[in-house]
Amino acid sequence: MKGQTLEMLGFLILSVTVIGIIIFMRTYLAGSYGNTLLSLTERQETEGMRSGLNTILQTTDPKTGRKMEELIGISSYTEKVKKGDKIDFGPGIGEVDILTMLEERFNGIYGEGKWYLKVPPADKFFTQIVIVVDTSASLCDDVDNIKSSLPKIIQDLSEEYDITATIYMLPGADSSCCKKTGYGGYDLTCDLFEGKLTDNLQCMSINSLDCVGNMLPQNEEDWGRGLGCIIQKGPPQGWNEKSTKIGIILSDELSGGNDDSGEELYYNMASLEIGKKKAEEIGMYVFPIKTETGRKICPGCDCPNYPECSCAPNICVYYQNQQYPVFSKIQCKMDGILYSQMKRIAEPTEGDVYELSGSGEATKSILEIIKRVEAEEREKRSIKLGIPPPKNKKINTETLTIPIPLIGKYTNIYLYQWS
Amino acid sequence: MKGQISYVMKPMTMIAVIILLVFLLQSLYLNRGKETQAEKKLDIVGTGTNILLILANSKDCLAYDYQQTMEKANILDAAKLDSFSNDYQAVEPECARNYDFGWRAEVKEIGESGIENEWTFGTGDFSSGKSLNNEVNFWIPVAIRYSENDIRLGKMDIRLVDGELEKLAGFLDWSCKMGQINRMTSSSTDIRTSYPVTYNSQENKICVGDSCRKLQCRLRYFDGFDSDGIHTLNVEFKQPDILLVGG
User: Fold this and answer.
1) Residue A1 near chain B (CB below 8 Å)
2) What is the DSSP letter of B57?
3) Do B46 and B100 sit in the same domain of this protein?
4) Which residues does chain B have within 8 Å of residue A115's beta carbon, measured at their own beta carbons?
5) Would you say the pTM of this structure is higher than 0.90?
6) Alpha-carbon distance B89 to B85, whole Å?
7) Among B120, B142, B163, residue at a domain's last position
8) Using one digit for the tens of pLDDT, what is the confidence trace for A124-165?
9) How many CB pairs under 8 A join A and B?
10) 3-state SS class at A85
11) Which end of chain B has fewer CB atoms at under 10 Å, N or C?
12) Does residue B142 contact residue B198 with C-beta atoms inside 8 Å?
C-alpha cells in the first residue's frame, strides 16, 4: 500500500511539474513577443498622433501662405475661437476661416469624431473689478473683513492676472454701530482703507464720481444706481475694451433701501434696472453678495430688542463676538425679496448671487468670484474643435506649445485622439 | 489482493507518464511555433515603421532639406516625390531598401475636395498565394512642401510584404550590393519556394510563380527552379553588376 502511495505521489509531482513548465512557456516565452508587439503598436499609435499634429501645424493655408500653427495663434489672440469666425487679412487676401480649415485637416488625418482639440488663450486674465459697498451700519463686519483680507488677495492675484479692483463706497450714513473697541463708532468710508491701497486696489467715494440725474445714488443702499454710475464714469484707469469686467455688490438690503411696508417698491426696481441695463451694455458680470440679513441667525426674524445701539428697533447681528441690534424685523423678513432682486441683476449678466452666513466670508466670496469668472472666460476664449473625448475609450493625448506672433507669447495646444 | 493492485497500477502509471510527456513535447512544439510567429510579426511591424520614418525624415529619401531653418519632422519635398515616382516604379528606392521584405508606398495629398495628388513608388509586384507569408499596411501623416508658403497635408501609406519572392530577390540584391561596395564577393543561402522560379534575363526579373521582381544585378548561369522546395543558391559577384549563380 505504501509503495502504491509513493507511486501515485511521484506521478502527481511529475504532472504538476509538466503542467508548470507548459504554463511558464505560454506565459513568458511567446507572451514576451506578444507584449513587445503590443507596446510597439501602442507606441506607433502615440507617435502617429504626435506626428499628425506636428504635420498639420506645419502645413500652410493657400490664401495667406502662413503655417497653421501661426494661424491658430492669430485665431487665439483675436478671439476668433468658433468655427465660422473669419479673420480679415486685408486686401488681396480677404477673410479666412481658420478653424473650419483646421477641422478639415484634423478630420483628414484622424477621422471625423475621433479627436478633440483645445487651445486656451495665451495672455493673462485681464480683469477690471468694481465693488459697490452698501455703507449702512449692518455692513461693518463685512467691510472690516474686506479691509483686512482683500488687499493681500488682490496683491497675490496680480502676480498671476492683470487685475485692478476699485471699492466704491455708497454715500455714507451714520454707522455709529460700527465699533472699534467696545465704545464709539466710525463711518464706512475709504478712510478705513488708508495704508492698504495700491495701484491694483483703490477705494473711492461714489459721490466723487459726480454722477448726475438718475445715475446719482440716493442713499447708502442704492447699489443698482451706484453700479450704473460707476459703469458710466469708469474706474480710475478707465474701461479697457479687452478687459473682463466684474461688478460686485455688497449689501443686505434692496437696491435703494428696504421699505417698512416689506414690499419691493417702484424705486427699488428703478434703481436695479439702471444698474442692470448699464452692466448689460458694457458686458459686465454682476455678482451681488447678500450679506447677513439676520435670517440665518434668527430664522424667525424675532430677536429681542437690544437697547445699547441707537439703530433700534432691530434684531440681532454679531460683530466682534457681541450681539448688535442693527436690523429691523422687516429687513430680516425681506431676505427672500432681496435674494430674488439680486438674482434679477445677476442672471442676465452671467453672474450669480452669493449669500454670506458670517462676517468673515466677504473676501472669500470675492476671491471665489474672480476665480470663477477667470475659469469661465478662459473656457469661452479657448479654441475648441472636434468632439469631447468619450469616457469609455482609450485616449491618446498630446500637448504642444505654439507661438502667438502678434504678442510674442506662447500657448499650448491640447490634442485628444482615440480610435 | 495487494499484489494484484500493484500489477494494474504500474502499467497505468506508465501510460499516464507517456501521455503526459507526449503532451509536453506537443506543447513545446506549438509554443515554439507561436513564438516564431510573434517574432516575425514584430519584425515586420518594426521594419515597416522604420521604413516609413526613413522615407519621411531622411534627406536621402523624401525629407525636405532645410538649409538654414530648424528641421521639422515628416515634411516631404514635392520635387523629390515627383522624382521618386518616376525613378522607382519597379524597385524600392535605395535609401530605404530592405532585403527581407518588399514594399510599395503611396503618398496622397489631402485637400478640401479629398485626394488632390498622388505619388506611388516601390516594388511593383509581391509574393502571392502560398508564397506569401505575411503582410502589413499602415500609414503616417506627412506634410508636402511645394514652397515655403505652400505646404500641404498628406498621408504616406506603405504595404510591406514578407514572402518567398522578396526573400529570394532580397538575397540576390543584397549580394549584388555587397559586391558593389567591395564588402563580399560571394555568398550562399537556402531558399524555400512554393512555386517554380523563373528568370527573365531580358527584363532582368525573377519570378516565383506569377509574381516577379526586378533585380539590381544581372544573373548568369541561372535558369530558375523547375519545382517548389528548398533550393541552395551560391552566388559570386562580378563587376560591374553581374552575379554568377550556382546551385
Assistant:
1) yes
2) H
3) yes
4) none
5) no
6) 6
7) B163
8) 899 999 999 988 877 877 888 888 899 999 999 999 899 999
9) 105
10) coil
11) N
12) no
